[in-house]
Amino acid sequence: MIYDTIVAKTTADGISAINIIRVSGDDAFSIVNRIFQGANLEAAKSHTIKYGYIHDNGAIVDEVMVFLYRAPKSFTAEDVIEISTHGGNLIANEVIKLLIKNGARLAENGEFTKRAYLNGRLDLTEAESIMDIVNAKTKEQLALANRQLRGDIHRMIDHLQEQVLGIIANIEVNIDYPEYDDIEQLTDVVIAPKIQELILDLNQILKEANTGQVIRDGIKTVIVGKPNVGKSSLLNSLLKEDKAIVTDISGTTRDLIEAEFNLNGILLKLIDTAGIRDTDDVVERIGIERTIKAVEQASLVLLVLDQSNHLTDLDKTLLDLTKSKTRILIGNKIDLGNKINLENENIINVSAKHNVGLDVLAQEVRSLFVNENIIGENYTLLSNTRHIAKVEETKQSLHDALTACKSSLPIDMVEIDLRNAWVALGEITGQSTSDDLIATLFQKFCLGK
Fold first, then answer.
1. Homologous superfamily of the 130-214+384-430 domain (CATH)
2. Model-level pTM?
3. How far apart are CA 121 and CA 375, in angstroms?
């Protein structure tokens, strides 16, 4: 494919040691060569580095190093030059202006990665993994994204598609050469069992994807409890900073306080809430209403109880409010007493004030949400919501095909459902994807990617 030449800064804005400006397209070498004082870039070999200056009609703009990559051995599979300048927004902007003046245009968000995908350098899952790598906040997130970038998801989807195509091939042979097989025997003995086996495989993939999603997206976690039970102290202890105001006055926290915390490799998206109680204070009542809504939307509830006192009616109300949620009961202020013991309920005793018991809390979170047996270098996990939705769609098409088999519908009707399954899988890797989806996905990337 032939594209125009694009340019963007790949490093973040602000003062830094260096900036890197990426140029990609058929005219990359000639455009940069017009403003480069040094070696003749158009005659230079691929994967070499040249030292020189960027100039504007002879006036030096900056001393630079220029990295040369000729197609197809580059990130975009096009001719690419990366110009390493000194840091600072002014220098980068001046160089980019010169490149645009000489024939390049400013890249759109994600356009370099989009070209890598369109040129066959990456599939869609590998392209998406790049933003996961950029956004990673835990080692587990980074490892998961790197496994996706190296093609693990691509290979898994390819294998599933091959299995679907194998079933379709059996049907095609029967349609083209009907004398070879009895149609009823073909559906009952050959096709239906293979579809059932595929559905079982997809069920296992989706089950394991729960762990993948937790690692990639984190856990929306709400801290709840009655006023002055130590919710804000727990938040501050986890974050190791004074994020929330802590006082002995009930109702100090009146609105939701949000923060992110890496808890043993799992990102908790923490929300510290207003203490729930009866109150005539209008502002505090609004905060309590938001607390109840946050509990409804949370994936995990940390219900904080005061171990220095016996359960109150308000504690019991909160226990009832959260009983249908995935929750962890936390007995705070263990340094002041141990008065709460609930039957059939496990309580993790902590002292938020003295940082006691937080390691046990971390272990409990992982045990609830992470299957440790499937986290490993050689294990493939789905984690992207789009991928999971497409696998669900694939499974539904296979169920439709299985129903068609059992209902003795014409064999070509079964094939239609199987082809739908194959297409849904192809939409994960980008083999069968609409232009609108591609545009939407890459718009989420940052400029320079």
1. tRNA modification GTPase MnmE domain 2 (1.20.120.430)
2. 0.81
3. 28
